[in-house]
Amino acid sequence: MNDVTQLTGSPVMWLFSGLNVAAAIFQSAVLYRMAKRYVRRTGVLTEEEMRVCMKAGGTVAIGPAISVFVVALSMISMLGAPFTLMRVGMIGSASTELTAASIGAEAAGVSLGMDTLTGQAFTAALWCCAVMSAGYLIFVPLVTRGVGKALNRVVIPQEGKKQSWLAWGLSALLPLIIFLALSWGQASKSAAHAVSLLAAAVAMLALNLAAGKLNRKWLKEWAMALSVLCGILAGALTGALL
Q1: What is the dihedral of CA 86, 90, 94, 100, to 10 degrees?
Q2: Residues with Cβ within 8 Å of residue 127, at least 6 apart in sequence
Q3: DSSP state of 146
C-alpha cells in the first residue's frame, strides 16, 4: 500500500487496536475482581473505605488523563488514531509512546512531525513501541515472583507477636523515602517545579486537617485532586512570573 495514511487508518489497524484495548480492559476487570475478593476475604478495608478509594482514585486520574489526551492528539496527527488508541490504551503514557515511536521512525530515516511518514518508518515505530512495552512483561514476573509472600512474612506479624521494627520500616519509611526521592527529582528541575510541589503539599495537609475538624468525608476524597490542581496553578503562575 503506497498511501501510508490509508495504512495508518485502515480497518485492519482498527481491528488489532480494538483487540489490544479489549485485552487491557479485560485484564483490568479481572484484577479489580481479584482485589475486591481479597479485600473482602481479609477484611483489610471496609466497604465504605473501598468506595472512598475508588472515588479518590477516579478523581485523581482526571488530571493525568487530560495531559495524556493532549499528547495523544499529536500522536494521532502523526501516526493515526488506531495506533494511538492501541498504545495509549495499553500503556497509558502518551509521552513515553511518542518517544519510542520517534526513535523507531528515526531509525528508518524519518523524523516524526517533520518528514513525510513512510511505510518502513511506521512499521519501525510500531516495533519500537512493542519492544519498549515488552520490558514490562518480562521485568514484572521476574522481579515480583515470590516477593509478595516474602514481604507478607516480614510485614504481617505472626499470631501472638508484635510487629517488628523491620516490618514497620518497610511499611512506613520505605514508601516515604521513595516518594521523597521522586519528589526531589521533580522539584530540583526549576523554581516552578519546587513551588508546585510545595503548594500541593501544603494544600493536601490543609485539606486533610480541615476534613478532620469539619467532619467532611467528601473533602478527604477530593483532597488529592484539589491539591494537584493547586500545585499545577502555583507552578504555572510561578513559571509565568519568572
Answers
A1: -80
A2: 104
A3: T
- pLDDT at residue 40, as a whole number: 84
Q: What is the mean pLDDT of residues 6-20?
A: 87
Q: pTM higher than 0.90 for the full model?
A: no
With a cut of 70, say whether residue 175 has pLDDT above it.
Answer: yes
How far is it, in rounded angstroms, from Cα 88 to Cα 76?
11
The three cell numbers of residue 160 are: 501472638
How many angstroms separate the Cα of 239 from the Cα of each of 70, 126, 192?
A: 20, 36, 5
107 by Cβ neighbours in 10 Å (0-12 / 13-18 / 19+) ranks as middle
Q: How far is CA 167 from CA 57, 152, 154, 156, 232, in A?
A: 26, 9, 6, 7, 35
| Contacts for 222 with CB less than 8 Å, ≥ 6 apart | 56, 59, 207
* Long-range contacts formed by 132-136: CB under 8 A, 24+ apart: 132/96, 132/97, 132/100, 133/87, 133/90, 133/91
Q: Which three cell numbers stand for residue 41?
A: 476475604
Nearest to 96 by CA among 144, 128, 62: 128
The cell numbers describing 2, all together, are 503506497
Residue 117's closest CA among 71, 83, 78, 77?
A: 78
Determine the pLDDT at residue 154: 63
Residue 108's CB: how many other CB atoms inside 10 A? Answer: 17
